Amino acid sequence: MPVSKRRPFKRPRHVPATDYEVVIVGAGAAGLSAALILGRCRRRVLLCDGGRTRNHFSPAVHGFLSRDGIKPQELLQLGHGQLKPYATVEQRQNCVNTAYKDPETGTFHLTLDSGREVTTRKIILATGVTDILPTIEGMHELWGRGVLHCPYCHGYEICDQPVAVYGTDKSVAGFALLISRWSKNVAVCTDGWTSMSEHARHRLQRHGITIHEQPIRRLVGKRNHQLRHVEFKDGSMLTRHAIFIHPSQKQRSDLAAQLGCRVLQRSGAVWVDKRIQTSVFGVYAAGDTTPAAQQALVAAAEGAQAAISCNEQLTREECA
Ligand SMILES: Cc1cc2nc3c(=O)[nH]c(=O)nc-3n(C[C@H](O)[C@H](O)[C@H](O)COP(=O)(O)OP(=O)(O)OC[C@H]3O[C@@H](n4cnc5c(N)ncnc54)[C@H](O)[C@@H]3O)c2cc1C
């Protein structure tokens, strides 16, 4: 039988009628992976994405099993392409602006930026996060190439190169010691913050890490957006291949808040249980949105888990 003839199951009468069984918001690694599993379950799915993924500034995705070093755009194209045989998955380039749960039926109503309104039995939020970079000239321009955040993603590429680690609180010492596993030439830049404890200073010194406390004027990059040097306000310069930062983050979308999902106070991440369900029944969250490690492969795994949990819950409701 041709693949496109594999229709979804007929809805049992006691199950509320909705446009879709699952709406997945966000088509990064998490959302695409969820859509693949649900397509294979013959679920009626709407996959919406209204923008770019978090890593689109980066030249490569590293550490993704079987795809190490692939361009972010290429990974997404593969993911979208592999959804094509699954006729029950509809892909749309739309932002989902609003979502609420109908308390009577337990179904969800969503509004897309096109103005279209859709209903669904379950939602998977795979909307990711936004990085908030320090306001220093050059940070945004070099982000993803000369300004890096994750040694598991980029550490191997800067092995044994001179690198800087930026931080204006006590967490900078631990971060610099972590980076020192990849390079023995690490300099901490605290951009005017001078309250590092004596204990932390000694630890850094013991591992050959230098400390530069003067305020930074700007980051100067090369044409290929790698770092050339850090320029300080006192006129001095530090030649480095890259600078690691630990940016703060916010949720890319406020849909979790609109739906009343519990959010962790410190990180702002959306809380999920072991089935990747949020505190709101029927709403699942996967990928960088949740507290798990922020890696593309982990996001894909969470997306798959969310899809399995959704399908099993839908089945329980249908077979009641
Ligand atoms: C510079 C950089 C380099 C990185 N390098 C690596 C690496 O080498 N290896 C690695 O494993 N990880 C890397 N990461 C981390 C990786 O990018 C993330 O872990 C991964 O993208 C998370 O996938 P996700 O699907 O959760 O979110 P995302 O990939 O960010 O996808 C979320 C999607 O949701 C969409 N969206 C948001 N809100 C809405 C809405 N309301 N309606 C519709 N769509 C919406 C967004 O447009 C986006 O496309 C890197 C991150 C950065 C910043």
From TrEMBL:
GO terms for MF: oxidoreductase activity
Keyword Disulfide bond set for record: no
Highest taxon above the source species: Bacteria
Alphabetical UniProt keywords: Flavoprotein, Membrane, Oxidoreductase, Transmembrane, Transmembrane helix
Transmembrane segment boundaries: 20-39
Coiled-coil intervals: none
Record's keyword annotation contains Iron-sulfur: no
Entry protein name: NAD(P)/FAD-dependent oxidoreductase
Source organism: Hymenobacter gummosus
Lineage, uppermost ranks: Bacteria, Pseudomonadati, Bacteroidota, Cytophagia, Cytophagales
